Amino acid sequence: MSDVILETRNLTKEFKGFTAVNDVNLQVQRGHIHALIGPNGAGKTTCFNLLTKFLVPTSGHILFNGKDITRARPAQIARMGIIRSFQISAVFPHLTVLGNVRIGLQRNLGTSFHFWRSERSLNSLNERAMALLAEVDLAGFADTVTVDLPYGRKRALEIATTMAMEPELMLLDEPTQGMGHEDVHRVTELIKKVSAGRTILMVEHNMNVVSGICDRISVLQRGAMLAEGSYAEVSKNPQVMEAYMGTSASELEGAH
Predict the structure, then answer these.
(1) pLDDT at residue 30 greater than cutoff 90
(2) pTM of this structure
(3) Could you count the other beta carbons within 10 Å of the beta carbon of residue 145?
(4) Contact, 20 vs 59, CB < 8 A?
(5) What is the CATH number of domain 82-166?
(6) pLDDT at 122
């Protein structure tokens, strides 16, 4: 039997007569990098918001490690090991790079909200924080104030702070959006590297990124599941071609 870490059953979200996510059945295998793709307005971000409990489904169920988490709150989901990295860089701009990762690590000390704790009590986290920064090629930026980091490096820092929370399942929302070619390549390699021993579900627009690192791809269109499979399978699917290109498969063939 396959090892499914995350599953949705008939997941549906309606907003005042508009169905944003329509009867979606998704299965994410443990240890996979799984991409959620689709044209603009396909329901990808709404789907992510349902999985991380920022939205409550209209109907359907969400299961994590076989346990129904449909009614769980965002903080409960995070404690279970589902950690989301946001589309907009979610780091503290005026802390150092090292300081940002230490905040992620504090969760495991149970002192997340003890901001009055002395700096000394956090020094024990430095070794682990530096190891995480090394993993994302940011060790040389440890003392840099985050606001001064280049954009692509900020996304790498965001991945490091997500990893600090020891996620079993990492949700990455548009990790390469707004990046130049060099940064896209660096962050793609980084995702591949940090996926070892983890499961990653990502929303991503860049097909080069998806084709290069994803084990499985789910395609959404108008809130519904259009296709699912490997990149090779999905990219040859006539419905997917039509959704992305606005061209039917026969027209594409006729263009050759």
Answers:
(1) yes
(2) 0.86
(3) 14
(4) no
(5) 3.40.50.300
(6) 66
